Amino acid sequence: MVLVVNYQQKENLEGKPFFTLTVQGEPELVVSQKGKPYLTARKASLMTTFEEAICKQLVGRELPGIILEVTCEPYDVTLDGGEVVTRNTRYEYQMEELVEESEQAVFSTHSEEDIFV
To answer: Which of 14, 32, 67, 94 would be a feasible disulfide site paired with 25, CB 3.0-4.6 Å?
Structure first.
């Protein structure tokens, strides 16, 4: 499950406004480069066709799914200290049904009649 934590108004290429939801995954325990453990959570943006009032009502609600780290074209990010780093991954919301389908192995099943003809 993911939690809707915020929403934002953006503009498409034609200048028309639309809203996105910011969704957050489960807390994860990770270890820093200095060996210190800390909690964090993945966040992703999800486009909507909703008006602002609906987006506002969705903040605090859970949605089925997870947030996955996916490979993308490299892009630069400026850190708080001014250092620029290049990344090639981003976080993406994935619906629960799609996650389950991608994790399932596909097997052919045959009856004994098919095999021993």
So the answer is: 67
User: First CA to last CA across the chain, in angstroms?
Assistant: 48
Residue 83: count of CB within 10 angstroms of its CB: 8
CA-to-CA distance for 96 and 54, rounded, in angstroms? 22
Q: Which residue has the tokens 């939690």?
A: 3
Report how far apart, in Å, the C-alpha atoms of 4 and of each of 8, 78, 79, 110, 117 are: 12, 26, 25, 45, 56
Q: Which residue has the tokens 């892009």?
A: 75
DSSP sequence for 84-114: EEEEEEEEEEE-HHHHHHHHSPP-----HHH
Band of pLDDT at residue 108, cut at 50, 70 and 90: very low
Percentages (nearest 5) of helix, strand, coil residues in the chain:
15, 50, 35
* pTM confidence score: 0.72
